[in-house]
Specification:
By secondary structure, this protein is α/β, with parallel strands linked by helices. It is built from 16 helices and 13 strands. The strands form two sheets. Strands 3-2-1-4-5-6-7 form a seven-stranded parallel beta sheet, sandwiched between helices. The longest helix is centred in the N-terminal third of the chain and has 19 residues.
Length: 375
């Protein structure tokens, strides 16, 4: 296999794209400390902040998706953005001369992978979901390798180019599979949570979920006191909802609750949790399996072909999680949580089933494929 010394990773838009991209970059640097790994993202999207915070350089393209409403005036600028991004992608490839280009999905990966394929540069897509996004579908027959996070991509990509790797997770999350004794106490201290009460970690994905936020508010409206609920809540509400959720908490005094818009130290959140309620994005699925905690999965109804429900079934069919439809989460989340917390043996059984589905070496498997391409 070939040594990697110059790679560009492109894509982003959500944490579900950014986290695997960073995991792949980290693995490349672990194997080749002197390697140059650069990122290309979309101007104004979260990768422009999150990637530099992780220690990598990033260039931004003026690109966005097409509004589903074809009459939207925002679509009028799309051709100009696409041409601008294709031109800048060519310029970046000419300037940095990468050995290979990796796309993780999102607006920015399209122009860069398109131009890399035209120039004969080896290309690899890491697709997280069982239903790929439009960018990756458009590139399906032009890239050299597709690393699949979940099964079922043969419908979209040439089967001979697909390798089942699982979804890459960053090292500090992978370490959860063998967390040392005392880790949970340190995590609880980090969040200011008590050690004598269970913790429910509620997360609606990197952008948040209004229905899950309302479910937490319903629970707290009925049981504002920790002594009534019997469990603490670590609430990741999403950056765009943070002001509103904090305002709600100020107007409805509660105890035993920690609310945050975006959580960078997911490892500490997972370690603190007794039970987790989560959206069923592909990266959440991968992390929850590795963490090995009883979970309630609430698939988002706002995704293409209901792919989060398909993601969730990969764990619920193993007995590692319960599926709660989004339409029911507002009124039923509290009941599901109370029932699970009242049955520690069931939680333990679910945790073991979750661990059986874990793929802790996915990042290494993706980089193995990348090295084969440049050999």
């Amino acid at each position: 296999m070939g040594a990697l010394h110059n790679v560009i990773v492109s894509g982003g838009g959500t944490g579900g794209h950014i986290h695997p991209a960073l995991a792949i970059a980290d693995e490349i640097k672990r194997r080749n400390p002197g390697a140059q790994v650069r990122f290309v993202g979309a101007l104004g999207r979260m990768e422009m902040d999150k990637v530099p915070a992780a220690g990598y350089d990033i260039d931004g393209l003026w690109i966005s998706g097409i509004d589903r409403s074809l009459t939207s005036t925002r679509n009028l600028s799309f051709p100009f953005k696409l041409l601008s991004s294709l031109w800048k992608a060519r310029r970046l490839l000419r300037k940095h001369q990468p050995q290979a280009v990796v796309g993780v999905g999102g607006f920015a990966s399209g122009p860069l992978l398109d131009q890399a394929a035209r120039k004969g540069i080896p290309t690899l897509i890491q697709e997280q979901n069982s239903f790929p996004g439009i960018t990756n579908r458009l590139l399906a027959k032009r890239v050299d390798r597709i690393c699949a996070g979940l099964p079922g991509l043969e419908r979209w990509f040439p089967a001979e180019r697909i390798v089942q790797t699982g979804n890459p997770l960053r090292a500090h999350v992978c370490e959860l599979a063998s967390a040392p004794a005392g880790s949970r106490e340190l995590a609880l201290a980090h969040w200011g949570l008590a050690s004598d009460r269970p913790v429910v970690f509620v997360m609606g994905g990197s952008l948040g979920a209004q229905s899950m936020n309302e479910a937490v508010q319903t629970i707290l409206s009925k049981q504002p006191r920790l002594s009534e609920r019997g469990y603490q809540i670590l609430w990741q509400c999403g950056a765009r909802y943070e002001s509103a959720c904090q305002a709600w908490l100020n107007a409805h005094p509660c105890d035993g609750v920690v609310c945050s818009g975006f959580i960078d130290r997911m490892d500490l959140a997972y370690q603190a949790a007794t039970v987790i309620a989560s959206r069923a994005g592909a990266m959440s699925i991968a992390e929850l399996a590795l963490v090995g905690k009883a979970s309630i999965l609430v698939p988002s109804p706002h995704v293409a072909e209901d792919h989060q429900t398909h993601n969730a079934r990969s764990l619920t069919e193993l007995g590692g999680a319960e599926l709660l439809p989004d339409a029911e989460v507002r009124e039923k989340l509290g009941t599901h949580l109370a029932r699970l917390l009242a049955n520690p043996k069931a939680c333990e059984s679910m945790a073991e089933a979750m661990k059986a589905a874990a793929r802790p070496h996915a990042a290494a498997a993706v980089v193995d494929e990348l090295e084969k391409l440049v050999a």
